[in-house]
Amino acid sequence: MFTIDKITMHHVNMRMKNPFTTSFGTEQDRSFLVLEVESDQGIIGWGECVSSSRPLYIEEFTTGAWHMLEEHLIPLVLKQTFSHPDDLQEIFAPFKRNHLAKSAIEGAIWDLYAKVNGQTLSEALGGTKQEVEVGVSLGIEDNLQDLLRNIEEKVDEGYKRIKIKIKPGKDIDVLHHVRDHYPEIPLMVDANSAYTLDDIDTLKEMDQFDLMMIEQPLMAGDLIDHATLQKEIETPVCLDESIHSYEDARQAIALGSGKIINMKIARVGGLTQAKKIHDMCVEANIPLWCGGMLEGGIGRLHNVAVASLANFTLPGDTASSSRYWIKDIINPEVVAENGVVKVPEGLGIGYDVDREELEKNTVNKKIFN
Ligand code: OSB
Ligand code: MG
Question: Cα dihedral angle (329, 335, 336, 340), rounded to 10 degrees?
Fold first, then answer.
């Protein structure tokens, strides 16, 4: 049992080393929230709200999430006593969606719970792996040479697979060039919903590139169209934006909308839901990998912990902190060596938050107690 005595919400702005371009836009300045929950025993749990300043990937955005947390979610947990983070499911259920906001505070409470119990977050979740394999997600580049240089760098660093972002007009040609230079590398693409079934010929053409998968070719909500597409192409379809809940995953699997799921903790509403979907996917024989949201160190460590669950059998997007940041807000930083990240052995998320670095990047802060 633990009681939440105090919550600090930090609004953090951090500039990434390089801009990151997808079919929905370009982002370099990350604007996200860090949630710090403190128990009556003085133990601290950390969570990250992985939203962006604009709702381009998902409907939530950072200042909206701040209000959701301030007005609705924080009052539900402050001064309350919990025996397990799963208790939050019932408490949050009346409020629809807002999964990134819910996940931020739920993740902090999972970290706190693990620390109270003398466990790593991985152990608390039932993780079985001591290390996780990771790939890297590369943005769209105007210039093909820039993309090829990025790929070369990441292949040399030993990442287990390369994911490249695509959109109509930046697809078949680009893939021909990439495969000419790298005929053998484990390669996949992510369209972030940029296509429709009208593009089926282009999507069929991608079968020639021996891709591990094509991630989210069609819109979120288009489970039936994804099922139609999967019947027409060899390349496995992987769902990202389509999966916001256990029910989404169950229906996608039943319809045959894809063969692989990209699990993002926040998109599905937190670790409890992520674990529940994981367990269903074991039964359904659907492999998982852990997606990324250009996280700071806290969210990154949550990803490492969840990826230590057994059915995360494919390399995820949790690259080294240094791929994104000049200096991350944790000590030590997350490091992928030859595409392998060691699961930290410290309690909870396992590493310390670099308070000085957090403070330096904090543009707004509110204490609830
Ligand atoms: O679609 O997986 C995605 C980043 C932001 C929003 C959506 C996505 C991504 C990435 C980058 O692909 C993953 C990462 O490196 O964190
Ligand atoms: Mg994606």
Answer: -110
For residue 20, give both structure tokens.
């990151």
Q: Which two tokens stand for residue 93?
A: 């259920």
DSSP letter assigned to residue 133: E
The pLDDT confidence band at residue 268, using thresholds 50, 70 and 90, is very high
Comma-separated ranges of CATH 3.30.390.10 domains in the chain: 2-118+353-368
Q: Which of 14, 21, 22, 295 to mutate to test the pocket of ligand 1 (most atoms within 8 A of CB)?
A: 22
Q: Which helix (H) or strand (E) holds 7?
A: strand 2-22
Q: What is the pTM of this model?
A: 0.98
* Fold entry, domain 123-348: TIM Barrel (3.20.20)
Backbone angles phi, psi at 224, to 5 degrees: -70, -45
Q: What amino acid occupies position 84? A: H
Catalytic residue from among 165, 167, 170, 275:
165
Active site residue 342: no
Indicate the angle between helix axes 271-284 and 99-116, nearest 10 degrees: 90
Antiparallel, parallel or unpaired: β 352-353 and 330-331: antiparallel
Does the N-terminal peptide bond of residue 75 adopt cis geometry, omega within 30 degrees of 0?
no
Q: Report the CATH superfamily, name and number, of domain 2-118+353-368.
A: Enolase-like, N-terminal domain (3.30.390.10)
45-56 pLDDT per residue, tens: 999 999 999 999
